[in-house]
Amino acid sequence: MLALLSREDRFWTPQQIYAELRTETVPIAPSTVYRILHKLDELQQVESMRSEDGELLYRIGGREERHHNLVCRRCGHAERFTLETLDQQAVRLGRQFGYTDIECRFDIYGICGNCRNSPSPSVPGEQG
């Protein structure tokens, strides 16, 4: 599964991972994909985030530094970026209301240049 996630710097749904593994004739159950992803997330081998509709998405890489993502709605490609001012404001606001262990999650969704220039969605079943 890590080899699959390492192929492209993009976010994958568990269903996409399962489908791709099945095309490679890997005998695996959907529930096993979910369990492995959960464990990899705990071990910080993958990064997880929620899509616009609340679904968990995964990509290779730990959480080595605080960052945000610009994610393509069609293909899942993601660019990491940092916004120190936003992170600092989030911590300040959280502390103002008595919160600790504050984490700011700010992700931007759009259509990447490759998908914008292609006539159909880059990932089967995905919509633009």
Describe the structure.
The chain has helices spanning 2-6, 14-23, 30-42, 84-96, 113-116, and strands spanning 46-50, 56-60, 68-72, 78-81, 107-110. It has 128 residues and is α+β, with helices and mostly antiparallel strands. It has two domains: 1-63, Winged helix-like DNA-binding domain superfamily/Winged helix DNA-binding domain (Arc Repressor Mutant, subunit A, Orthogonal Bundle); 64-117, Ferric-uptake regulator, C-terminal dimerisarion domain (Dna Ligase, domain 1, 2-Layer Sandwich), CATH 3.30.1490. The strands form two sheets. It has a three-stranded mixed beta sheet with strand order 4-3-5, with no helix packed on it. Strands 1-2 form a two-stranded antiparallel sheet. The longest helix has 13 residues, at 30-42. The protein is globular. The relative contact order is 0.16. Residues 122-128 have low confidence and may be disordered. Belongs to the Fur family. This is Ferric uptake regulation protein. One of its GO terms (biological process) is regulation of secondary metabolite biosynthetic process. InterPro entries: FUR, Fur_C, WH-like_DNA-bd_sf, WH_DNA-bd_sf.
Short description:
Zn(2+) binds at residues 72, 75, 112, 115. The protein is built from five helices and five strands.
Arithmetic mean pLDDT: 86
Strand content: 15-25%
Q: Please work out how many helical segments DSSP would assign.
A: 5
The residue fraction in helices comes out at 25-40%
Structural class: alpha+beta
Main β-sheet description: 3 strands, mixed
Give a count of the beta strands, DSSP E runs of length 2 or more: 5
Shape: globular
Order of helices and strands: HHHEEEEHEH
The tally of structural domains comes to 2
CATH uppermost class of the largest domain: Mainly Alpha
State the oligomer.
single chain
Q: Strand order, biggest sheet?
A: 4-3-5
Overall radius of gyration: 16 Å
Q: What is the terminal-to-terminal distance?
A: 27 Å
Q: CATH homologous superfamily of the largest domain, by name?
A: Winged helix-like DNA-binding domain superfamily/Winged helix DNA-binding domain
- Unreliable runs, pLDDT <50, ≥5 residues? 122-128
CATH topology of the largest domain: Arc Repressor Mutant, subunit A
CATH architecture of the largest domain: Orthogonal Bundle
